[in-house]
Amino acid sequence: MEAKCHLRYQRFGRRKVAQLLDAVRGKSLYEAHYILESLPRIATDIVDKAIKSAGANLSVKLGKKLDLKTIWVTQASADQGPMKMLKRVQPGPQGRAMPFKRKMCHINVVVSDTKEQK
Predict the structure, then answer these.
(1) What is the CATH number of the domain that holds 42?
(2) Residue pair 115/108 in contact by the 8 Å Cβ criterion
(3) Is residue 86 part of a domain?
(4) Rounded to an integer, what distance in angstroms lies between the CA atom of residue 87 and that of residue 85?
(5) pLDDT tens digits for range 34-91
């Protein structure tokens, strides 16, 4: 059986989050937690939260508490969020203002109680 977790509008770049998701794809939740704990990235907390939430969703679906070593991350992806939001301004030369946008992403995680991967 599978369970999903979607985190929307996270204030991290898609590419940085996708690198973390590549590291945990195909691993058990137990391994994924320790991999993310050892990586020096700022987005590890959010990715760990998504993976734990998907594991909790699977436990609720099955109606019993599952061991973290028996739940596997089958799919994990990061999609680009909206670029219209969070426009910011940085000081530029000669009193000008240089606009930039804060990047956002959507994190999607699918976990399963079997190790097979799609």
Answers:
(1) 3.90.470.10
(2) no
(3) yes
(4) 6
(5) 999 999 999 999 999 999 999 999 999 999 999 989 999 999 999 999 877 788 899 9
